């Protein structure tokens, strides 16, 4: 099964090293280890758990990327949590390249 979202690079600097590192850090969390998390841009599919793959996309400001989260049956909750956290990153956390604080 796949969750799909369109996300936009909002930073005038595009997807540079710092936010790519934070993005891969989020995607690589242990609770998401069994999920496939990918970004698609200009026909290229990048593993979001790899900084080098993300940087290889060459996504600039205002670029629209497709975020895909692949999961198996029984992993719906982890997939939805990853989706929520990654969408937050693109909407709010990207500008400061900070990992959002966990809710108590």
From TrEMBL:
Record domain HPr: where: 2-98
PROSITE patterns on file: PTS_HPR_DOM (PS51350), PTS_HPR_SER (PS00589)
A Pfam family it matches: PTS-HPr
Signal sequence residues: none
Stored Gene3D superfamilies: HPr-like (3.30.1340.10)
NCBIfam families assigned: PTS_HPr_family
Protein name as it appears in the record: HPr family phosphocarrier protein
